[in-house]
Amino acid sequence: MLVRDGERWAVESYRLHRVDDPSPGDVGVIAYVELLQQQVEAQLGVAFDEVVAQVREPMGRAAADPSVGNLVTDAFREAAGTDMAFTGTGTLRSDIAAGPLQLSDLFLVTPLGIGTTDDRPGYALMKLTVTGSDLKDLCEFLLVGYQLRGDGYYPRVSGGRVHYNPWRVPPDRVVDVELEGGMAQLDDDATYTVALSSYVASFIPEVASLTKGLLDVQPVAIEPELKTYEALVAYVRAHPDLPVDTDERLIETHAGLFRNATWKQWTPVGLLGLLVSRPGGSSDDASNTRRGGEMAKTAPTDASVEDHLAAIAEPRQSDCRAVAQLMTEVTGEEPVMWGPSIVGFGAYDYTYASGRIGSWPATGFANRKGTITLYIMGGFEPFQELLGRLGKHKAGKSCLYIRKLSDIDVDVLRELVTGSVARLRESYPESV
Prior knowledge:
With 432 residues, the chain is α+β, with helices and mostly antiparallel strands. It has two domains: 47-252, 5'-Nucleotidase, C-terminal domain (5'-nucleotidase,  domain 2, Alpha-Beta Complex), CATH 3.90.780.10; 305-427, Aspartate Aminotransferase, domain 1, CATH 3.90.1150. The protein contains 13 helices and 22 strands. The strands form six sheets. Strands 15-16-19-20-22-21 form a six-stranded antiparallel beta sheet, with helices on one face. Strands 7-4-11-6-12 form a five-stranded mixed beta sheet, sandwiched between helices. The protein has a four-stranded mixed beta sheet with strand order 10-9-8-14, with helices on one face. A hairpin with a 2-residue loop joins strand 19 and strand 20 (371-376). The longest helix is centred in the N-terminal third of the chain and has 18 residues, at 27-44. The chain is globular and about 70 Å long.
């Protein structure tokens, strides 16, 4: 019983009632749920209660239990035909009980999400083609996310094992990668294929900005494959006597403190970071840290912006040229290539607590597979009203994603870029 206690309600007494399968449900609610189920089954062409496999023992999704994560990433890799596949424990929404496994149980495991590549519901399974160098950076990025944000970001891997040393400087903790078929250090210039959900893949364009240029992943190609739940269903149907794989594929080691280390580990800054960092933490570094004249990947270059734009196919090329013209007019700066794919305008210098200085474009854009990514530095919190008027888009922390200019109001985009650059100039008057 609830009673009023001044401005608040208080529990005076209560009684527990047993609720289990024999308990009758609300007739109206049951009928509505059955109607929704029929609609979903008709759209997806499946039956919720279809038994697709027998599970010999329970499978868990927690960081300490890799069985569900191994199942899902194995399904992704087989469906996409890739070298490796990744996901995170936070995208695994349910454990799997022992016994008959129904389709409805699989829908509980992988979220349906939203249709980002077509009008059908569900996260798409994306196939990325990346260089060996970028694949290592992807592993480093996933490790940093887990060590900073907790077990919900714990990476799950298929197609090999990633060995990392938590006592090394982040983001240079990957010691080596054991691909299926034997231990191999990734060839920086070779290409590999990777399967990810579109949700996880949505973080790829922000790797450089989130790590201040210490890491960068620039896919050679990104192709949508099946929906993630379709990949999981197909895999389980192909393996009805479902094996329970509890092998850990992300392996912590305290060996190899300097094996396959990069300049991040060897520089004096890296060595200092090694002394002050701890497993689960991070160390500050800047995007323009050098070793033997080598700069971090995302830095200004002498590459031709015109050549870069000319290589983009129409009609995307015209959109990119229009964005470049808009940003030139707003900033008063000529475009400069930052790394291999970002067209930047102006720059601002930011200072870490350690005293080191990094640089990043005041604004800019990059042509990506399926979208144009625009960098709105400082974030979107002050610009919610503009976003509401902008048109069809997606927004990350400091990245704005559009498919084509005709989807948005270009005048509103100009206001957004102008406001963002003005805020940067107020915050960094000496550098912007």
